[in-house]
Amino acid sequence: QVQLVQSGAEVKKPGASVKVSCKASGYTFTVYYMHWVRQAPGQGLEWMGMVNPTDGNTNYAQKFQGRVTMTRDTSTSTVYIELSILRSEDTAVYYCARELPGQTYFDYWGQGILVTVSS
Amino acid sequence: EIVLTQSPGTLSLSPGERATLSCRASQSVSSKSLVWYQQKPGQAPRLLIFGASSRATGVPDRFSGSGSGTDFTLTISRLEPEDFAVYYCQQYGSSGYTFGQGTKLEI
Fold first, then answer.
1. A44 contacts B97? CB cut-off 8 A
2. Is the dihedral of CA B65, B32, A29, A79 positive or negative?
3. Does B103 reach chain A within 8 Å, measured CB to CB?
4. Number of helices followed by number of strands (H, E) in chain B
5. Is residue A71 within 8 Å of residue A19, measured between CB atoms?
């Protein structure tokens, strides 16, 4: 069965960086794009960007350009998101979610990772 | 960027009743790219409806989606206790993916 398993919670100080992972299983890793969506406490969903596991190409939301990096490791079917220059407003649950190219929806989601930014 | 506005913010109903949730776009959206998700506390979103009106695998037929252009609707014909959750619409456009702010469906 399809599973997206994300790494554990993180606590970071303002100005630091965080890198979290999402390991895919149960399907051919390179067939689906992987997206990252975050949700601040009590708030709605915010799309951050995507990575194409086939070639590593990325597309970031304008809001995060220059501060976010999404990568993949095809040998372990894992995608990563690194967010730098963290601020308190980055405190959120970060989800990975897959998309079949061209479908424009996310059919499977990871369980989410809470990243807390606090001094 | 296309802004999605969902209404109402909170909808209070009882099991067995009909729920109608609205998603209005700031400009015309391709029906192909209009999606609905359900999210329960502490859980990831779950895909319900894609292409404005197609139910995802395993979604009960009491859930239906409709609409076109700038106005889209999610209807739950007869509420079950497990349907009380937050519902989000989402679209894909030239600026990427955007979500509505959500409608909380409560008892």
1. no
2. negative
3. no
4. 0, 10
5. no
Q: Scanning the structure block, which residue is given the tokens 């959500």?
A: B102
Residue B95 above 90 pLDDT?
Answer: no
Residue A73 DSSP class: E
Q: Mean pLDDT of all residues in chain A? A: 97
Q: For B43-79, b where at least 16 C-beta lie within 10 A, e where not — what string? A: ebbbbbbbbbbebbeebeeebbbebeeeebbbebeeb
Question: What CA–CA distance (Å, rounded) separates B7 from B104?
Answer: 9
Which residues in chain A have Cβ-Cβ distances shorter than 8 Å to B45?
A: 45, 95, 97, 106, 109
Distance from CA of B57 to the nearest CA of A (A): 9
Residue B1 has pLDDT above 90, yes or no: no
Average of per-residue pLDDT across B51-57: 97
Give the pLDDT confidence score for residue B94 in this predicted structure: 84
